[in-house]
Amino acid sequence: MKGPGIFLAQFIRNEAPFNSLDGLCGWAANHGFKGIQMPTLDHWLIDLKLAAESKTYCDELTGKINAYGLDITELSTHIQGQLVAVHPAYDLLFDSFAPEELRGKPKARMEWAIDQLKLAAKASANLGLDAHVTFSGALAWPYVYPWPQRPEGLIEEAFTELANRWTPILREFDKHDVDLCFELHAGEDLHDGASFDRFLDNCKEHPRLCLNYDPSHFVIQQLDYLQFIDLYDDRIRMFHVKDAEFNPDGTNGVYGGYQDWIDRAGRFRSLGDGEIDFGAIFSKLAQYEFDGWAVLEWECCIKDSEQGAAEGAEFIKSHMINVTDRKFDDFAGCETDRKTNRRILGLD
């Protein structure tokens, strides 16, 4: 496992050092991070189109980041991925994610988003990256709770369409030898293991269809985040280290009662402030020989982001495991052969 890394999206703002690549790199390095996960909408951070077209640009970008003692962990297209599939109920809200000239034009917006994902595949390859993180978007999310009764075939139709939109993107990622990792997240059609399985079936078990493991979203949904690793270890290629807690009471539970984050039963927290057993998570990932980055995605409804980042780097370092290359009881072992083993078993 490599790390600690940090996802920059939650820290970008219009003030130094958070409004320039150099500023963010210096800030991240000073906090002890070894890698940065980069969102791809801000051209001053990374020009996605140029990165897809120019290996020279990518080499120069990598060199600038390496000069701070940092690596690029992965690129992110969460925002663009969301726009690959948008139910009309969310058109107005998600229009703000798209370039201004595409607002009010759902088809053109979708085509732009798909092109962005394909550019991200090429850019990732040019940067020497082997994994990429995104959202799936959603056509069926308004019908997540079956009331009124869902019409027969509605969900199947939604996932068939979702697969039709993503399959050409998956082919592009396969062409460039990059895994496409979906973050399972409420509001997306891919939000838990069952919905991921459905999508995997529709995409004919595509080998590039992979996962960004983020246990915080599973706490909010009350899903077993440890068993999830056992079930999907062969698809987990990325890891967002993010904490959460679930404190239901007589007024609200999983759905949150339309309240602000601080009043909901399920809340995202800074690392160590929630209820997630990261010791068990890091142990399981080490057991399955996960060799990707451990990347802090900071979100908290209480703690300041600067404190969360500073504490997060040390938290991740303290949980990373150097996997042993020998057995702890090797000192008591002895050389054997088949003949000796048969004698031990009383077979000769």
- Overall pLDDT confidence: 97
Largest sheet: 8 strands, parallel, barrel
User: Can you tell me the CATH superfamily?
Assistant: Divalent-metal-dependent TIM barrel enzymes
Q: How many strand units? A: 10
- CATH fold topology: TIM Barrel
Q: Your description of this structure?
A:
- The protein is α/β, with parallel strands linked by helices and 348 residues long.
- The protein has one domain: TIM Barrel (Alpha-Beta Barrel), CATH 3.20.20.150.
- 39% of the residues lie in helices and 14% in strands.
- The chain has helices at residues 21-30, 48-53, 55-66, 78-82, 91-94, 106-126, 154-175, 193-202, 215-221, 225-232, 278-287, 305-319, 338-344, and strands spanning 2-7, 35-39, 71-77, 131-134, 179-183, 209-213, 236-241, 243-246, 266-269, 293-296.
- Strands 1-2-3-4-5-6-7-10 form an 8-stranded parallel beta barrel, surrounded by 5 helices. Strands 8-9 form a two-stranded antiparallel ribbon.
- The N and C termini lie far apart (46 Å).
- The mean pLDDT is 97.
Question: Notable features of this structure?
Answer:
alpha/beta; 348 residues; 39% helix; TIM Barrel; two-stranded antiparallel ribbon
Helices and strands, with pairings:
Blueprint: E1 2-7, H1 21-30, E2 35-39, H2 48-53, H3 55-66, E3 71-77, H4 78-82, H5 91-94, H6 106-126, E4 131-134, H7 154-175, E5 179-183, H8 193-202, E6 209-213, H9 215-221, H10 225-232, E7 236-241, E8 243-246, E9 266-269, H11 278-287, E10 293-296, H12 305-319, H13 338-344
Parallel strand pairs: 1-2, 1-10, 2-3, 3-4, 4-5, 5-6, 6-7, 7-10
Antiparallel strand pairs: 8-9
Helix pairs in contact: 6-7, 10-11
